Amino acid sequence: MYDFQEQIGFPILTVLTFLPAVAGLVMLLMRGKPKAYKGVALAATAANFILSLVLIAYFDRYTADMQFIEKVPWISSLGISYHMSVDGISVLLIMLTALLSLIIIPASWNYVKEREMQFFVAFLFLETGLIGVFCARDLLLFYVFWEIMLIPMYFIIGIWGGPRRIYAAVKFFLFTFAGSLLMLIAIVAIAYLARANQYATPVFDMDLLEKSTFSYKVQMLAFLAFFFAFAVKVPMWPLHTWLPDAHVEAPTAGSVILAGVMLKVGGYGMLRLCIPLFPDAVVTMAPWILVLSLIAIIYGALVSLVQKDLKKLVAYSSVSHMGFVTAGIFALNLVGIEGGIMV
User: In this structure, is the dihedral angle defined by the CA atoms of residues 282, 288, 290 and 293, taken in order, positive or negative?
Assistant: First the structure.
């Protein structure tokens, strides 16, 4: 495997993650200069997209190992590290995020009329949160990026949305924050339980947690907390009710990033965390999740048929097609997860 970071000395994942946020901070110094801050936003998203293509170009497709590893101690006494890496799942989602961001920024140049600079800054911080979630291999770092996603999207809906934007933004925030809070409790619990069982410090590193063993009861409780957070984000039926409001009231750019990437974060979390960390609980809960997925597929499709609002149509069709994603994940076989046909 070609180690890009070792050979070139370039922390590509860190740059991919934080370049948009740094550009957003620079833009704050350009108040009253729309050509300047729009140019910075476009340059940052274009550079990130090019870096995502470089990431794919140097990615070794013939190994399942994590690649482009960046790991340094962060809070050593608590076992927390700055640990970033990618595999074949996350590398494609990073490219998708970078591509959509590159499309959204110029498409919004003449769309936003009020607080224009803040709109682009919010989107750049949202891109940082999304890419960070796909790169993080430390659970606390993952949670930090997860929360970073929530805040800019709340403002994008609440400030630049439609007539019912406040209602939609608050509903989006409450649903997502409730799931995030449960996930944080579960993260801290399993980190300290892993310490009690095998390690000298709490364990937040995903590589170590995947090798740890937890009792069936702990797995079930932690799985339900993680699953609730991810199911809200997917969103799975019956936790989907925030999505139509958010889609309808969000500005067009917000709807694009919401449907294009943010919903996929929920499925990514299920695949990245729920299955490897809590395998016994997953086997128990899989049949029930398949039932919920089937309901979402049928319900979302039927409700989509009667929609006259295009954004609501996209929202309910997203509920339906993400039902296929969750069904594939919890089918617990390669055909379902890869979405392919075994020959």
Answer: negative
- State how beta strands 67-75 and 80-86 pair: antiparallel
Residue indicated by tokens 């594939």: 328
What are the C-alpha distances in Å from 202 to residues 135, 220, 230, 285?
Answer: 21, 20, 23, 27
Query: Quick check: bond before 238 cis, omega within 30?
Result: yes
Contact 266, 133 (CB under 8 A): no
- DSSP H helices in the chain: 4-8, 12-27, 34-57, 88-107, 116-135, 139-160, 165-197, 206-211, 216-233, 242-249, 252-257, 263-269, 275-277, 279-305, 310-330, 334-338
The contacts of residue 240 (CB under 8 Å, 6+ apart) are 234, 296, 300, 319
Q: Which of 80, 105, 35, 87 is nearest to 208 (CA)?
A: 80
Residues 6+ apart with CB under 8 A from 159: 115, 118, 119, 165
Over residues 249-274, mean pLDDT: 86
Q: What is the CA radius of gyration of the chain?
A: 20
pTM of this prediction?
A: 0.87
CA distances from 245 to 98, 134, 323 (A): 26, 26, 19
* Region of residue 201 (left: phi > 0; alpha: psi -120 to 50; beta: else): beta
- pLDDT of residue 292 exceeding 50: yes
How far is Cα 232 from Cα 220, in angstroms, rounded to an integer? Answer: 18
Identify residue 341 by its one-letter amino acid code: I
Strand partners, 75: 80
pLDDT at 131: 93
The residue assigned the tokens 């039902």 is 323
pLDDT interval class at 2 (50, 70, 90): very low
Joined tokens for residue 235: 């969103």
